[in-house]
Amino acid sequence: MQVKLECFIEPSFGENAYVAWRREGGPCWIIDPGPPPSAAQIIEHVDSLKLVPDALVLTHGHADHIAGVPEIMAKYAGLPIYIASEERQMLTDPAQNLSSGLGIPFKTDITDTRDLPAGETLTLDDSTWQILDTAGHSPGGRTLYCEEAGIAIVGDALFHQSIGRTDFPHSDHDMLIRNIKERLLTLPDATRVYSGHGPVTTIGDERRLNPFLR
C-alpha cells in the first residue's frame, strides 16, 4: 500500500509538518502544522490536489508543532483535532507548550479535541494506523504507524541518529528510551521514520547507528 506524505519544513525551528493522503481528491490528514509559512503551504498543497481534510493530528503539543493550528482551523472549520489527552492543555497554555520560555507566548482558544489513546487505531481513507505511546519528550507523545505502508510518523520521539530532548520540565528520559525500544525498535527494519525535525530515516538504521539507543 502506498501512502503519500508531503513534508513542509518551517525555517525557524526546522519543524516538519506533514500532509498524508492516499489519492488525489481523497481524504487527507494535516499533521503538526508549525509556525508560518507552514499552514499556508499546507493549505495550498491540499487545495491544489483537491484533497479533503479529514483530521488535524498532533503528535504532541509543543509550540513549534501547533503554531499553525489556528490558521488551519480558520480555513477548515469544524475539522476534528486529535491530540493525546495528556497534552490537550498545551493548546491553551503557553507555559505548558514551552512558548512562554522562548519569549513568544502562543496559545489557542481550542478546547474541543479528540484523544489519541495508545493501542487504538485511526483510519485514513483505506489505510489503518496504530497509535503508539512514544511519550517521554513530552507527556503524551504519540506515533502514527501504518504497517501496510511501512511508515511511522513519530513527532519528536526519534530523529535521524538522535532522540527528542528530555531536559524540559515535563520530559522523562527513561520513559522516552523505554518507549522507543519497546514501541519503535520492534517495528520492521524497513519502516520509514518521519520525524518532527530532520530527514527521513528507517528503524533499521536507527537500531544500528543511533548512539542514544546503544
Write the layout of secondary structure elements.
Elements: E1 4-9, E2 16-21, E3 27-31, H1 38-48, E4 52-57, H2 63-66, H3 69-75, E5 81-82, E6 121-124, E7 127-133, E8 142-146, E9 151-155, E10 158-159, E11 162-163, H4 173-184, E12 192-195, E13 201-202, H5 203-209
Parallel strand pairs: 3-4, 4-5, 9-12
Antiparallel strand pairs: 1-2, 2-3, 6-7, 7-8, 8-9, 10-11, 12-13
Helix pairs in contact: 1-3
Structure, described:
The structure is a single chain. The chain is an alpha+beta fold and 214 residues long. It has one domain (4-213): 4-Layer Sandwich (Metallo-beta-lactamase, Chain A), CATH 3.60.15. The chain is 19% helix and 26% strand. α1 packs parallel to α3. The longest helix is centred in the last third of the chain and has 12 residues, at 173-184. The chain starts with a strand and ends in a 5-residue tail after the last helix.
The number of E-state strands comes to: 13
| Oligomer designation | single chain
For the sheet with most strands, the description reads: 6 strands, mixed
Which homologous superfamily in CATH is the superfamily?
A: Ribonuclease Z/Hydroxyacylglutathione hydrolase-like
Q: What is the CATH class designation? A: Alpha Beta
Proportion of beta-strand residues: 25-35%
The percentage helix is 10-25%
Our count of domains comes out at 1
Determine Rg (CA atoms, Å).
Answer: 16 Å
Please mark out the parts with pLDDT under 50 across 5 or more consecutive residues, or reply none: none
Q: CATH topology, anyone?
A: Metallo-beta-lactamase, Chain A
Structural class: alpha+beta
Distance between the termini: 32 Å
Mean pLDDT: 97
Sequence of strands across the biggest β-sheet: 6-7-8-9-12-13
The CATH architecture category equals 4-Layer Sandwich
